[in-house]
Amino acid sequence: MELKAEDVFRPGAFPEYTYISRKSAVSNLPYEFRLNQAIKVSGFLTSLVGPSKMGKTILCEKVIGFDRIVEISGSDFNGDIDFWKLAATKAGLSYEGQFSSEHTIIDTQDKYGKKERYSLTKDKIIDYYTKENLVLVIDDFHYAPQEKRILVAQQLKDAIRRGFKAIVVSLPHRADEAIRQNADLSGRLSLINMEPWQVEDLKEIAKVGFAKLNIKIEDKVAQMIAVESLSSPQLMQYICLNICTILEMGALEKDVVNVELLETAYRYTTANFEYGDVVTLMKKGPSTRGKNRNQFVAKDGKSYDLYELIVKSIAENPPMMKLDFETIRERINELIVDTCKKPTQQGMKESLTKLQELLNEREDIFKVLDWKEGILYILDPLFLFYLRWGGDGDKNVF
Q1: Is 7 a residue whose pLDDT tops 70?
Q2: CB 175: neighbour CB atoms within 10 A?
Q3: When comparing pLDDT for 182 and 289, which is higher?
Q4: CA-CA to 353 of 20 to 30 Å: which in 32, 53, 67, 361?
Q5: Burial 269-294 (b: 16+ CB within 10 A, else e)
């Protein structure tokens, strides 16, 4: 059967034909081996930590298998949802309900029925998971409210001692403290830090995938795509799929990936990314309450306030997922004309703090940055990619 591009490049699903195995730079062991080893240790909880869109969930699906994995998202814990009710429901169990029973009075042979309610106990849910050899994967643990994360850690402490297998997936610098700093879980954690993808590994996705489609791609072109993918295999899959779509449209040779089509592919890739409101909010910044902000003249001839300059500096070359304050300061000063008064370091730091607070007040999609201890972490590579290539038509976000 002839493969289609959507069969080979799958940014939102398990990539059967373009799955690339990686080794940890620290242990020199494949991540598949490390995860498989971790979940086999009875009485231990596995903490899998790594940047967003790095293939953590795909790794779990590869190692555990779709027939054994039960996935929960941290966002599922909003409200008063009970942890064990959620674990039962996701595994296909009816956590609570009612059943009818019929009774006969022997002397009169009269029959009567009644309805009774039932609710599964934690013990029965744990027994079901262990009997069926299921593994609970709590993805995006950082999306759960702080009090819920603490509660989940407490619930898992007893469960893992009884053979319950669970993996908590979260971002670095964020929400795994409830797990790692829980004294009751001390000595009962298998910690796996998933490192960002290297360019050489990302290139393999393009080289393997295009080869299966009988499309030629030079190593230098694959490298350019890999660099722009910001260490994200998901983004690499997105871009490659859109390159195939452009080739199918017949504008260029159908069996060769040329450098000329890359920028178009990048812009097409952002078409379905929902970060427009995020960028608008960041550039607008917090309310000024009627006061005018200082404006700075940039080398492109336009005037920007400090919040706009921060956003613009993040999008500058080279693309980076982690920026220390000095790098941000240098980028902002480089954007401004030499004769223009520069913003102060204190003003920059205060604006970064306020920007962080502004984003934290909004929905999860707005939580794309983490300004912490003088370092700005870009939590979502798709957001940074949109910042660099998104916009209306030929115009970028600026």
Answers
A1: yes
A2: 20
A3: 289
A4: 53
A5: bbeebebeebbebbbebeeeeeeeee
Q: Choose among 225, 246, 222, 251: nearest CA to 5.
A: 246
First to last CA, the chain: 45
Only one residue has tokens 């608008």, namely 280
User: Cα(128)–Cα(145) distance, rounded to whole angstroms?
Assistant: 27
Cα separation of 256 and 2, whole Å? 18
CB atoms within 10 A of CB 260: 9
Question: Torsion-angle region of residue 230: left (phi > 0), alpha (psi -120 to 50) or beta?
Answer: left
pLDDT in tens, 307-361: 999 999 999 999 999 999 999 999 999 999 987 788 999 999 999 999 999 998 9
- Token pair for 358: 């502004």
Residue found under tokens 């995020």: 278
Report phi then psi at 39, rounded to 5. -75, -10
Rounded Cα–Cα distance for residues 235 and 54 (Å)? 9
Q: Which two tokens stand for residue 234?
A: 């998901």
> Cα Rg for the chain, rounded, in angstroms?
26
As a whole number, the mean pLDDT across the chain is 88
> How far from chain centre, in Å, is Cα 96?
32
- C-alpha–C-alpha distance, residues 169 and 137, integer Å: 7
Q: b/e map of 187-201 (b: 16 or more CB within 10 Å)?
A: eebbebebbbbeeeb
**Integer Cα distance of 35 and 71 in angstroms:** 16
Contacting residues for 360 by C-beta, under 8 A, at least 6 apart: 367
**Strand, helix or coil at 283?**
helix
Q: Are 13 and 66 in contact (CB under 8 A)?
A: no
Top-ranked range on mean pLDDT: pick from 2-11, 48-57, 150-159: 2-11
Q: Give bridge partners of residue 191 from the DSSP assignment.
A: 47
Question: Three-state SS for 94?
Answer: coil
